[in-house]
Amino acid sequence: MSAEPGVDAERRVSAERPAPSGNDVLKAAVGEQRRGVAIGALLGAGHQVGEALVPVLIGVVIDRAVAGSDAGALARWLVVLAVVYAGLALSFRFGAWSGERAAVRADHDLRVRLVRRVLEPGGGAEEGRLPGALANITTEDARRVGAVNMALMLGISALTGILVCAVVLLRTSVQLGLVVLLGTPVLLWLGHLLSKPLETRSEAEQERAAHASAVAADLVSGLRVLKGIGGEAAALHRYRTTSGDSLRATLRAARAQAFQSGMVLALTGCLIAAVALVGGRLATQGSISLGQLVSAVGLTLFLLGPLEVLASVNAEMAQGRASAGRIAEVLATPYAVRAGDGALPRPVRGAVRLRGVRHGGLDGVDLDIEPGELLGVVATDPAHAAALLRCLARHTDPDSGDVELDGVPLRDLDPGELRTAVLVADHDADLFEGTVRGNVAGSVGTSGDATGDPAGDPAVVDAAMEAAGVTQDLRALPYGDGTAVSERGRSLSGGQRQRVALARALAADRPVLVVHDPTTAVDAVTEARIAAGIRQTRKGRTTVLVTTSPALLSVTDRVVLLVEGRIADTAPHTDLVRRHETYRAAVLA
User: Fold this and answer.
1) Element (H, E) at 77
2) Which of 13, 102, 253, 283 could bridge across to 149 with cysteines, CB 3.0–4.6 Å?
3) Nearest-CA neighbor of 379 among 566, 141, 132?
4) What pTM value is reported for the model?
5) Sheet harboring 374-379: ordered strands across?
């Protein structure tokens, strides 16, 4: 199945867009959720207005009911106060829900964008980054950027509360209102300056935390190997060092946040003290009534909440900017290969041609692979085999020369569409959590795990398992092809994992299949059966076996010998064994 034209166009357009910056990521995260932020801010503002009205109403009750001993007025104003409390409680509940929903949706959208970029057929995002680091960016950094929506909503609500408080105080006394109106912008500016060190240290904290996660994932995945070579102590020392660096970065960020919060709280206290001082002096002069003094004091205490919110918003914004920069780095990573404008030939005959290919040690390789041919490739240098595989899979384009499929250069094709016709099965292919059959069929259940429901023709899956020697293994497994497979197939032996991975490649039934050393962990008898199975299953379709296994090479139509990155000879396996010392050393040693 070819890639959808709309998807191809979207890939080309996205490739032509300028690389996003941290600010672009923040704007997108907020812009896509602006409706939720606006609703949350509106309801939050209603809550803040209600909070600000409470001390005002208490002052009114004192002046109009308590001072005059009017029970009826007291009851009426208490009802009004109860209604205000109900309104502010409801607005807080639904405002917080709307803001949190916007934050979670932005977090989700960012995770989807990051995962889509990492899985993009053009590749590139994974280069230079360990899986654990990418996982940290996709989870923790995306969460922090999403939280900016909630912070923005809370900030708008807090500013509304401060504005209402200032207006009420202005109506009570111009001096009180001016203290708030002039003091708040100064406080916000100082808070922004104090957040700069936190932003820098938060970025460093996330970098070290991502690196620690990456090292941990790397060590866990290779735990069996480490135990086998007695490398536990060195691995433990490496992780302790990395974890210690992460801890120190986290403590530095925590100290910066504590300093910022403490200084903002101290400045907030100074502003509140100034309001209380001016209000008290006005009350002693008789410029305001007792009820107005109580309202002024209550509003002063109320100010503490919005100002603390603004301090936390500054911290959230600083952390969000740092995380947005890290996300932008992943999204802006150049593609390893670009989608071309050419169309995949239909039907795919499977003719593969290499013309003057130079890449990773390959030195002007010229090779024609006929449709339906079973070709063996022996490279005296494993790096040259790896370079050939990368070019055939179009994980990279040759430095010079071309690789063609049915006369169409691979660089002119979309890499995602190309892989519907050409499958390169790596030697170290991973399995997925699920079942044996689910892994072979390549099906994915609703939970995201490989399930036992085949994605393709059951007969094709059965034939692939038979050819790869998996059917024989099923007798030793407790539930046959329904046996559970743990993460990366660790519940299976090395040979079983290899056979399941090979069966999966065969079951994909691509017109062109390239397999790299699929039988290094199996015994000689099983290897001979697998060789015969591959030839039978792939009859009539182009297959390339990059290997040094005599059993596999013996069933090929011909073998290409790569020496020092060049084709030294091409002939049937038996002929090369007879006439090439280099070939015998590579294959029979």
Assistant:
1) helix 71-119
2) 102
3) 566
4) 0.69
5) 422-425, 512-516, 542-546, 374-379, 558-563, 566-571
